[in-house]
Amino acid sequence: MATALARKADVLLVAETANVRNECRDSLVSDARRALKLVTYDAHSRIGRVVATARVPAAIAAFRPDVLHVQEQPDKLTARIVGLLRWRLPILMTVHDPRPHSGRDAAYARRQDVFRQRLRAAASAFHVHGDHCRREMIHAVGTGRAIVDTLHGVILCPEPAERRAPEGGRMLFFGRMEAYKGLETLLDAADILQRDNVACRIVVAGRGPELDRLRPRLLQQPCIEVLEKFLTPAEATEQFQRAEIVVAPYQDATQSGVVAAAVGNGRAIVASAVGGLVDAVSDGVSGLLLEPGRPDVLAEALTGLIDDRGRLLQLLAGSEAEAAGRFAWDRITDDLLAAYGGLLRR
Known about the structure:
The protein folds into two domains: 2-153 and 328-344, 3-Layer(aba) Sandwich (Rossmann fold), CATH 3.40.50.2000; 160-324, Glycogen Phosphorylase B (Rossmann fold). 49% of the residues lie in helices and 16% in strands. It has 16 helices and twelve strands. The protein has helices at 2-6, 17-23, 26-35, 46-63, 76-85, 104-111, 113-122, 131-141, 183-195, 209-220, 233-242, 257-264, 277-280, 295-307, 309-324, 329-344, and strands spanning 12-16, 37-41, 68-71, 91-94, 125-129, 147-150, 170-174, 201-205, 224-227, 245-248, 268-272, 287-290. The strands form three sheets. The protein has a six-stranded parallel beta sheet with strand order 9-8-7-10-11-12, with helices on both faces. It has a four-stranded parallel beta sheet with strand order 3-4-5-6, with helices on both faces. Strand 11 (268-272), helix 13 and strand 12 (287-290) form a beta-alpha-beta unit. Helix 5 runs parallel beside helix 7 (113-122), helix 9 (183-195) crosses helix 14 (295-307) and helix 12 (257-264) packs across helix 15 (309-324).
């Protein structure tokens, strides 16, 4: 996002060092350094947080921005820095999850709620991903401040040399293995696929409590391959490239980075018709939206795409088109620049 904005405005990007190291490819960081000013800080050590409290506001003050765009990160350090800056310039805050997911996310959110409330109180306006999240945000903060909604732009896009044809019948279930992601629904659907002798390979990539809970069944299912690890950006992109279909049988959802990555790799998506997935997945264009919690419906949809190659190719092409259209960062940043202008005219 910051690199796309830098094609239209002067940009200072402030990012946590570990996040840059773990979540950004070297090529992405190099592109950012050429396009904008990048300042990193350490949030993991006590001395690092003390230094950041002084260094980050100083770097922002020296840059003299017109608008501060903050990603909601409900922790003490972020709340403190934003609190120091809230009276100096307007703040647009991106909120990925207006309401926390069920399961462990909800428990974490309760512990961090005091910082979340401080951050939201400091925001002049909000940015969310899709109409569902906009409605959730209105429920959370009311209608007194502007809320701009865009899709989450593409992520984990392949380098030109990494592009490859997907492997026939290969599917990917990717991310943190939390209960709301619907791993058990996928596993029940896999049993149906195996029973019906459907030629497929389902890759479950990530870590989390649901993987621990369902491990015995996962290991007994011959069509499932488990990659229990934190994947680097390059490793994650490789898995998206190898898959034909990305499966997201969620029980609830706000925005979805998994869908943004699937579109960024031009892969078909089979997802539950819940929450923000309805905004992100164009049913019949880039993927299929299904009734949640129905392994039989999921198995039928997956079988249909494996058996109907023409239909699958249409969805793959549709996903590629979405990457250049609704999910393109240049289009999204046009909307963000308009939102910045609205804040400056207040």
